[in-house]
Specification:
Blueprint lengths: L16 E2 L11 H10 L10 H11 L6 E4 L2 H11 L5 E5 L4 H8 L4 E5 L19 E5 L11 H5 L7 E5 L22 E6 L1 H4 L7 E4 L2 H8 L9 H9 L3 H24 L5 E2 L7 E5 L3 H10 L2 E2 L1 E2 L10 E5 L3 H16 L9
Parallel strand pairs: 1-11, 3-4, 3-5, 5-6, 6-7
Antiparallel strand pairs: 2-8, 7-8, 9-10, 10-13, 12-13
Length: 347
Amino acid sequence: MTDLRHHGDAELAPGLVDLAVNVREGAPPPWLRAVLHASIDAAASYPDPAPARAAVAAAHGRPVEEVLLAAGAAEVFVLLARAVRPRLAAVVHPSFTEPEAALRAAGHPVTRVQLRADDGWRLDPAAVPEDADLVVLGNPTNPTSVLHPAAGIAALARPGRVLVVDEAFADTVPGEPESLAARRDLPGLLVVRSLTKTWGLAGLRVGYALGPAPLIARLAEQQPHWPVSTPALAALVACSTPGASAEAGAAARELAERREVLLRELPPSVAVEGDPRSSFVLLRVPDGARVREELRQRGWAVRRGDTFPGLTRDHLRVAVRAPAVSRAFATALTDVLRSAPTPEEVP
């Protein structure tokens, strides 16, 4: 049974270099930390979401009624499972497992649309069941780092279906070329976004969803009062400005260069799955479980792949870091692979 609740932070321990959690390394940038510190002065009052909701709406060219603020993207998936009663939910895999976990916890029937390695883990819209009235997929997809064409995803939208696109990593791709966040013409489209990845705010729990006003209202009805904290609201305002958008774009371009360094340094016996476009890469290595454990003993934490439906123990997800870190990791990985036991040594 696949452990849908396993995530990269479970791989961490003191003293390990973190390549398991695919978010921005280190603290948020200084200007954002200053915003968060200043927001504490307003923490005695209940949170006022109006400025943040307006800022997110303006950033995406939408009316405020089409914006839901949430305590991270993961909360949106729980709200969705509570608010929507699908006859058949289709979840595209391998992908972030929280949407399926939330749907199953709420008692909804779920079918898995399994992408294939020999297709480069690319989405085939025809593989999604016609009778699915709720479809969930990520773009770019965690853990494959594959970016699907927006046109193929948009083709899945239709009246009577809720189409959920998890764009938590969309801003890690320069220019966000395949984002559907601005599309208001597609029926039932719900785009889920997060501040976690680019801005290093995993502990703050802040994200949002964009979609038709009636669907947004149904999701909001499932939230308690004041679901998003004052510091998180301040971060939403600060990260929705044109200046922040420009900084995110620069960070995405730097990330692409860093990813190329990692890919060039990997040993030849390691296969890179798909065409990685985000802040992580999916690798297939011989005897992956042993390799992951030996990397851990040498001080490296990577994300196991076998808790994603459709992947195996030989799959490892590795976060993109600074070039020096990637080179050191590639050296460690090469050493681990060279130390593999011979057939005579295997009991």
